[in-house]
Amino acid sequence: MSLLGAGQATPPPATDPNVANPAGGNTYDGSTYVSSGFKLLGGTYRLRFPKPGTYTVYCLIHQPEMQLVINVAPATSLYPSTQAQLTSTGSSSAAADIAAAKQSTALFPYAGTADQLAAGIAPGGATGAPSTSTVMRFLDSSDATNVTETVPLGTTVTWTNLSNNAPHTVTFGIAGQPFPEINPFAPPSGGSTYNGTAIVNSGPLFPGQSFSLTFTARGTFQYHCLFHDDTENMIATIVVV
Hints:
Blueprint: E1 2-3, E2 34-35, E3 53-58, E4 67-72, H1 83-104, E5 116-121, E6 135-139, E7 148-151, E8 156-162, E9 171-172, E10 193-194, E11 200-201, E12 210-215, E13 219-224, H2 229-232, E14 235-240
C-alpha cells in the first residue's frame, strides 16, 4: 500500500523497481510519500494517521482499480457506519467480484490448443476496462482448477496475460531445486528454451503481452508468477513427454 506526498499527482509506475521497497516510515499526514513495499502472504503494515483528512491508498502493482479512501476524522467524531454495516457492504462486494471472476474464465480464447495458455484472466479480457476482479491462475481452458499441461518434447508454449488489472510473470526455476527469490520486476532472463537446468524468467507481462518458451527436455517442470505465487498460489506445471 502507498499514499502520495504533497504535490505528487500519481503513484510511481509498477515498472519502477524501487516500488518493492518500503518508503516514508509508519506515520502519514499527507506531506510525504509512504509505502509498505511489497507484502507477501501474511505480511502486515501499520500506519498511523495523526492529522484529520481524506487520503487515497494505492496498490502500486494493481493499478488503477485497487484503491481505497481513508477518512480520518477528529478524535471526538462518531463513526459514519457501524461495523456490521461495513461488514455487510464488504461481503456483498466480495461476492460480486468472485462471481465476475468465475464468469471471466468463459472468455478463454484458445480452446483445444495445448500450446496457448492464459497467464491470468479478468472480466473483459486484456483490452477491457480495469476490473475489480481477476483470476490469478495459469489457464489452459475455462477450468481454473486445472494447473497442469502436458505437451510433447519440442513444443513451444505461449502464455498471454489476459487480465486487464495485473502484471504476471512466467518463471521456471532449476528442476529439483528450491524456487529462487527473484524481483518480480526483473527483466527477462534465460532465453527462449528450457530444459530444467537454468532459470528462465519472462519478466513482467502486462495486460495483452505474451511470452513463448520451447521445451527441449522431458520432465515435469513447475513454474510461478513472481507477483502472485506467495499471495495467490499462482503456480502451475508443464509435463513434457
